[in-house]
């Protein structure tokens, strides 16, 4: 039980009469960095949103840390999600953006201050705390967005293409920071991208998706060196 971070059992999703996720089974080990990769429209975001509880599961079950959460409210699942669009509050300072979610939960002020300071230190955004989002670069904004997830101290972090709005150079440096974050925090992280390089460099486990199904999952090395089929080989760029 404790060795399972997130477990998906025969998970299906339909929009109207159209099924887009076709019975996905996945065991995501506790503390692993797992990357969902696959072409646009294959169902990466839908899977992540179902884990987050932002999208209802049509059929099947999802468990987080051994607890069945299929009908549990998103705020009670022990997860925090970071989106592609930073969705920061433009009229609030960085400090208030970081604190906002905890204030809403009526967390004690001393605890809020402590967690905000810790997140700021981890992300090296201490000099930016009194600025507003409009006064930040794209990379700095994305750090604040990640900071908002960190202060909630989730069991599981969910990232949906968090770097895709950044330029190439910044993407690389943020990727390094996210890897460091995983080493420091040790949480389970599920990271969605359509970028093979990002997947290969970040993942402990890669899950290759196509048309709402898992084509293959395994270590980057296994998926690269021993792809199960031509689709995986082609997508990952294996020399096959
Ligand atoms: P990805 O994130 O891999 O690009 P998505 O999970 O966004 O893919 O989408 C998977 C499939 O589900 C696509 O065919 C998409 O058009 C469809 N889809 C996603 N969200 C909705 C929705 N709210 N209503 C109808 N179809 C949707
Ligand atoms: Mg998506």
SSE pattern, N- to C-terminal: EEEHEEEHHHEHEHEEHH
Unreliable residue stretches: none
Percent helix range: 25-40%
Q: Looking across the biggest beta sheet, what order are the strands in?
A: 6-7-8-3-9-10
Shape: globular
> DSSP helix count?
8
Based on DSSP secondary structure assignment, what is the total number of beta strands? Answer: 10
Mean pLDDT, to the nearest integer, reads 93
Report on the structure:
One of its GO terms (cellular component) is ATP-binding cassette (ABC) transporter complex, substrate-binding subunit-containing. This protein is of the alpha/beta class and 240 residues long. Helix content is 36%, strand content 27%. The strands form 2 sheets. The protein has a 6-stranded mixed sheet, sandwiched between helices. It has a 4-stranded antiparallel sheet with strand order 2-1-4-5, covered by helices on one side. Strand 4 and strand 5 form a beta hairpin. Helix 2 (94-104) crosses helix 3 (109-123). Residues 44-45 line the site of magnesium ion (MG).
């Amino acid at each position: 039980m404790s060795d399972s971070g997130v477990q998906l059992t025969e998970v299906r999703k339909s929009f109207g009469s159209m099924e887009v996720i076709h019975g996905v089974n996945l065991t995501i080990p506790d503390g692993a960095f797992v990357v969902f990769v696959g072409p646009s429209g294959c169902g990466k975001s839908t899977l992540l949103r179902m884990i987050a509880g932002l999208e209802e599961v049509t059929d099947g079950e999802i468990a987080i840390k051994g607890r069945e959460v299929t009908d549990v409210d998103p705020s009670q699942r022990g997860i925090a999600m970071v989106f592609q669009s930073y969705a920061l509050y433009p009229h609030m300072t960085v400090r208030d953006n970081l604190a906002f979610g905890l204030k809403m939960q009526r967390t004690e002020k001393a605890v809020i201050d402590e967690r905000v300071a810790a997140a700021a230190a981890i992300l090296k955004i201490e000099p930016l705390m009194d600025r507003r989002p409009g006064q930040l670069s794209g990379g700095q904004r994305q750090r604040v967005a990640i900071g908002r997830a960190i202060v909630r101290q989730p069991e599981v972090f969910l990232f949906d293409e968090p770097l895709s709005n950044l330029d190439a150079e910044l993407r690389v440096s943020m990727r390094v920071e996210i890897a460091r974050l995983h080493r420091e925090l040790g949480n389970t992280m599920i990271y969605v991208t359509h970028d093979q390089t990002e997947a290969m460099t970040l993942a402990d486990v890669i899950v290759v998706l196509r048309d709402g199904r898992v084509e293959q999952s395994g270590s980057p090395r296994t998926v690269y060196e021993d792809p199960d089929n031509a689709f995986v080989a082609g997508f990952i760029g294996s020399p096959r």
